[in-house]
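User: Please fill in residues for this 409-position structure.
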């Protein structure tokens, strides 16, 4: 077992069970770009599927979870959690083409695992830099593994911040960029955002946040000119930007923001679920963005904004998807996906959008035909709360009990 580093409260736990090229990887919540879009010209996903057609494989998961799968070098990684108080946490790895389980790692949670019955301790989606997996949990446990499952370090943030917990569990997904893991831990107790050194698990910086529940995930705008790489953080009353290397606050906009959907960054534009939907534009000669547009009628539900092929897609709480001009916010069309609750953000590839709901239904929309539903399928005894992943011509989706691969057969 190789260990990258053990420092401070970094903890190494006993297993209970035994070149960084992005390519077609899907390394974090909503993909490498964080837009929910697959832009690979090689991808050709089926526009219909059932449990007997275009379903390459289906595997059982040992425990529940609402996190999304990620894909690195044709390996699929997923987290799960179990136990009466959700104190067993898992990281699992599967071979993408075959579905064969390559390894499973199991640990004891060190923080508060309790969460709402519809959620799980394994709610945040893991992130990867292409060489390591960073799995975060509602219990504020952060695990670093290499792609073969060797533990590098284990950080129990609750040891440093013992009051970090909210009433129903936390689900903000970490992101990793510039060698820093960003963990957004906003709640009624110890509320903060931390920058963690990816190589060692050491804390680099901490930003105190409002003591209130917040399930939105951070987003990063890349460095350009005089602008440093910037982490975008939202809460119910504002959106701020901080330097990813130092945690220094660079700017702040006040507004009424949602606490569930996450910011989506597309090039030099950040789409924020604030005052309806607001777009900020970044420039190379300024650390402070300017407001590009704001549209109070564009209200996201639980799903985060998706940007695909230059268009912005917003799903509201009634399951209606609207297509909008990302440069102006002007609406092009809207279409209904069904009335069930959508926690999972839709994903898009080519001219298709894939939406999965809590009731186990899947819908495929034709984006070239004003979002017309071209396929609907009801999975039996399944509930989908995690956002799908797209990689190497396949769609991966996890339910409350299974992991599926959908691809052309």
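Assistant: Residues filled in for all 409 positions:
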């Amino acid at each position: 077992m190789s260990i990258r580093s053990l420092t401070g409260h970094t903890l190494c736990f006993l297993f209970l069970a035994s070149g960084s090229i992005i390519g077609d990887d899907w390394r974090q919540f909503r993909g490498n770009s964080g837009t929910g879009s697959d832009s690979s010209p090689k991808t050709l996903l089926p526009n219909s599927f059932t449990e007997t057609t275009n379903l390459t494989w289906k595997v059982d998961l040992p425990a529940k979870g609402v996190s999304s799968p990620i894909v690195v070098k044709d390996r699929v990684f997923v987290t799960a959690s179990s136990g009466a108080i959700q104190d067993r946490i898992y990281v699992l790895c599967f071979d993408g083409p075959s579905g064969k389980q390559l390894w499973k790692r199991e640990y004891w949670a060190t923080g508060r695992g309790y969460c709402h019955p519809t959620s799980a301790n394994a709610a945040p989606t893991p992130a990867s830099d292409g060489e390591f997996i960073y799995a975060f949990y509602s219990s504020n446990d952060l695990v670093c593994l290499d792609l073969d499952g060797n533990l590098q370090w284990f950080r129990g943030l609750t040891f440093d911040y013992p009051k970090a917990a909210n009433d129903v569990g936390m689900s903000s997904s970490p992101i990793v960029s510039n060698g820093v893991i960003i963990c957004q831990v906003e709640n009624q107790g110890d509320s903060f955002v931390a920058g963690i050194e990816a190589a060692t698990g050491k804390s680099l910086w901490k930003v105190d946040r409002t003591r209130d529940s917040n399930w939105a995930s951070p987003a990063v705008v890349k460095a350009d000119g005089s602008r440093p790489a910037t982490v975008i953080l939202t809460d119910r009353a504002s959106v701020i930007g901080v330097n990813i290397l130092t945690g220094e606050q660079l700017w702040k906009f006040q507004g009424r923001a949602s606490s569930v959907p996450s910011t989506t960054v597309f090039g030099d534009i950040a789409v924020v679920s604030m005052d309806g939907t607001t777009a900020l534009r970044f420039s190379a000669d300024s650390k402070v963005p300017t407001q590009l547009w704001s549209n109070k009628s564009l209200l996201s539900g639980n799903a985060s904004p998706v940007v695909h092929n230059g268009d912005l897609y917003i799903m509201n709480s009634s399951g209606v998807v609207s297509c909008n001009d990302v440069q102006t916010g002007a609406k092009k069309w809207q279409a209904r996906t069904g009335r069930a609750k959508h926690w999972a953000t839709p994903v898009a590839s080519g001219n298709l959008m894939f939406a999965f709901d809590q009731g186990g239904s899947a819908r495929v929309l034709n984006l070239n035909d004003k979002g017309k539903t071209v396929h609907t399928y009801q999975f039996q005894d399944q509930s989908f709360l995690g956002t799908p992943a797209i990689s190497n011509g396949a769609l991966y989706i996890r339910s409350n009990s299974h992991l599926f691969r959908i691809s052309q057969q």
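For context: Residues 5-21 have pLDDT under 50 and may be disordered.
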